[in-house]
Specification:
This protein is an all-alpha fold and 156 residues long. Helix 1 packs antiparallel against helix 4, helix 2 runs antiparallel to helix 3 and helix 3 runs antiparallel to helix 4. It has one domain. The radius of gyration is 18 Å and the shape is elongated. The chain has 4 helices and no strands.
Length: 156
């Protein structure tokens, strides 16, 4: 393998991961926001409860889509281990999203659909950066011996 291949291959893989993760995220964003709006504004559940339910459904769909598409080339470390870590990471991201929604609703009293949806999107955005990094690091680790993009410049 030439030095050019060693440098560009990890970046191509990273680009594939980011783009697939983005598509999965976009689909789940619509599922999450749609279900949140349905549960809160139509069914009448509270905003935090609606957020937890909608995020739970989107998280489960997201695990399988990311495992079988975004990170399909990475090591398989067992469904129980991966899904448990995936849930823990998503609970942290859900906490981020819920804090933003609760702050918007309860602290600044912005209770209209526009304000709550902006809060939901901001919370999801912050959580997304955390999730991508965490999935790569802990949930779907690289196969042993695979050079990650951050290490590509140090490979001989």
């Amino acid at each position: 393998m030439s030095w050019v291949d060693r440098f560009t291959t990890p970046w191509r893989v990273l680009l594939k991961e980011i783009s697939a993760f983005g598509v999965v995220g976009l689909v789940n964003l619509f599922i999450d926001i749609g279900l949140f709006n349905l549960l809160h504004f139509r069914v009448g559940l509270g905003p935090t409860t609606s957020n937890i339910v909608s995020a739970g459904v989107a998280t489960t769909i997201s695990y399988f889509a990311n495992r079988h598409w975004s990170f399909s080339h990475r090591a398989r470390t067992g469904l129980r281990r991966e899904y448990t870590l995936f849930i823990v990471i998503n609970l942290i991201a859900l906490g981020i999203s819920s804090v933003v929604i609760a702050f918007t609703y309860y602290v600044i009293s912005a209770t209209d659909p526009f304000a709550l949806n902006v809060a939901k999107i901001v919370g999801i955005g912050i959580g997304t950066v955390f999730r991508f990094w965490s999935y790569k690091r802990w949930v779907f680790p690289a196969h042993p011996g695979v050079v990650e993009p951050a290490q590509a410049g140090t490979a001989d």
